[in-house]
Amino acid sequence: MNDSSWGAPPQTGYWGPSDQGPVQGAAPAGPAYDAPEAQQTRPMPIVPDGPAYGGDQDDDQGAARLSGPLFRDESPQAQHYAAPQNPEPMPDAPQPAPRPQKKSAGRDLGAAIGVGVGLGAVIVASLFVVKAAFVGVIAVAVVVGLWELTSRLQERKGIKAPLVPLALGGAAMVVSGYVRGAEGAWVAMALTALAVLVWRMTEPPEGYLKDVTAGVFAAFYVPFLATFVAMMLTADDGPWRVLTFLVLTVVSDTGAYAVGWRFGRHKLAPRISPGKTREGLFGAVSFAMVAGALLMQFLIDDGTWWQGLLLGLAVAASATLGDLGESMIKRDLGIKDMGTLLPGHGGIMDRLDSLLPTAPVVWLLLVLFVGSG
């Protein structure tokens, strides 16, 4: 912007850049700007020798430094006013109070709710229409979870757990648990571990131990624990048992989130998961116990409300430990989520983290309370 755009020539006291450079003891001469438009501007008047208000001398070149705004609205007489040597400091202006920031869930809640409802519809439809279809849903979830886990291990740690034997063995493990019960699940687990050991032998021996160790861990952590869900399904009221397991886990997570988000003050395990609080754990236990009493009383054959209280307490504990366990894995890997397959949730493993360790707990307590039926 040139001077003519302001409608009047600038006041004296502005020192523009010079074509000739600064001269010792004198104000710079030349056009006000070094741009081509400066040829149409009026020349700046010469400022008499003397310090400007607020200025000081440059130690190296002897030229006065510039201070103040670009154009100063002051009279010529004011420019010869010398600043006091020891001016009184101006009092600090009061700073506006910071606005309180609203708590954020850290997720796209709209997408999370939509995905959750969609998954719930698929699960309920397969669970109560054809049991075998739900076993297929479990197998698919297991294979995808293994793919996410092994991919993150290779990306972040360079650990190459063999996916092919894990995926095949994991699906077979779920089916064996549904068809042959606990014995079938253990046999499939052993064969899957053996397949991992043999499959890895086709590659160089460097890193063999860590690769097969990670493979056996993945086989136990994902498909073997998921097999207990398939085993629940074999009972006469199997669909209701699986539904009780799923609802209790979701209610526990929801109670922990709701109470922790609103009232959370004391960290539960800050080194593992800084977002979890003791208040959130109390919410998980309270919500799960109430839901357990209702579900055992009205959904499970021969179940009673007091059994539901114990079941809800156990689910809250196992779901929290499972969540912390995967948080520990993700913190070691340096990632936030295991995947991005489910908008608003992360990956499949981010939804299975509390379900997997809870499955054997619910299966065992239901067998103790009402039998394997």
Number of strands: 2
* Strand-pairing-aware structural class: mainly alpha
Radius of gyration: 36 Å
Strand proportion: under 5%
Helical fraction equals 55-70%
Described by the principal axes of the CA atoms, the overall outline is: globular
- The span between the termini is 87 Å
Low-confidence stretches: 1-44, 47-83
The tally of helices reads: 9
What does the main sheet amount to? 2 strands, antiparallel
List the keywords.
about 375 residues, two-stranded antiparallel ribbon, globular
Layout: helices, strands, pairs:
Layout: H1 109-129, H2 131-157, H3 163-200, H4 208-232, H5 238-263, E1 267-269, E2 273-277, H6 278-298, H7 305-333, H8 348-352, H9 355-370
Antiparallel strand pairs: 1-2
Helix pairs in contact: 1-2, 2-3, 2-4, 3-4, 4-5, 4-9, 5-6, 5-7, 5-9, 6-7, 7-9
Region (Disordered): 1-106
Catalytic activity: a 1,2-diacyl-sn-glycero-3-phosphate + CTP + H(+) = a CDP-1,2-diacyl-sn-glycerol + diphosphate
Biased composition (Pro residues): 86-99
Report on this model:
Helix 5 (238-263) runs antiparallel to helix 6 (278-298) and helix 7 runs antiparallel to helix 9. By secondary structure, the chain is mostly helical. It has helices spanning 109-129, 131-157, 163-200, 208-232, 238-263, 278-298, 305-333, 348-352, 355-370; strands at 267-269, 273-277. It contains nine helices and two strands. The protein has a two-stranded antiparallel sheet. It is 56% helix and 2% strand.
